[in-house]
Amino acid sequence: MVEISVTKKYGERTVLDVSGLRFERGRIYAVMGSNGSGKSTLAAILAGVIKGNGEIIYDVKKPVTGYMPQKSFAFDMSLTANMLLGRSLRERKEAKNKAMRLLEEFGLGEMRRKNAKKLSGGETEKLALARLMMDDCELLILDEPTAAMDVNAVERAEKTIMDYFERLRPAIVIVTHSPAQARRLADEVIFLDEGRVEEKGSAEEVLATPRSDKLRKFLSVNG
């Protein structure tokens, strides 16, 4: 569906240098690597938020894309209003039931009238993820979507992500530090080191029998 070949520099430092990375609909990809490995830069370029040198090629047309950055945000209004942002009055009537269902799925239903600026970090992540799922995306890019959530919230969020995936079959790209999360969700793993692809392949193969010393070290540290 989409193939990316780009480099990105900040000053003299190359933070990303990838070629021929392809993401297909109906597949979930986990992008892993240590801090500073280029994961978030790849996600932001793929989402069109920042530009790199190179090209992004689409098979037919640019897909409908949803992006959740690493630092989640909430608007200074109720959770319900956050969920319905950008929709006309007529659309809001149709969307409200969906918004309420998603807030319930993320355990935020009882907070729907609360000002979103008063949420905790984990609650803000849940709201940001729920808000993203209001739209039917063909490409969904999630940068550390559950980093601030507790164990129960992570389980709930992952179930909702998988339900979304089964319903729409988008390409989902999840940036994660968690090998366990990659095992649970991903079909394929892309491991970055210093902006380059160190290893990639099926999640089962890459995580069970890593070929590179760098990936073995990463897995031993991150469990």
Brief summary of the model shown:
With 223 residues, the protein is of the alpha/beta class. Helix content is 38%, strand content 26%. The chain has a single domain, classed as P-loop containing nucleotide triphosphate hydrolases (Rossmann fold, 3-Layer(aba) Sandwich).
Explain this structure.
With 223 residues, the chain is an alpha/beta fold. It has a single domain (2-73, 135-222), classed as Rossmann fold. The chain is 38% helix and 26% strand. The protein has helices spanning 39-47, 79-83, 89-105, 121-132, 151-168, 179-185, 203-208, 213-222, and strands at 2-10, 13-23, 28-32, 53-58, 65-68, 139-143, 171-175, 188-193, 196-202. It has a six-stranded mixed sheet with strand order 5-6-7-3-8-9, with helices on both faces. The protein has a three-stranded antiparallel sheet with strand order 2-1-4, with helices on one face. The model has no long low-confidence stretch (mean pLDDT 96).
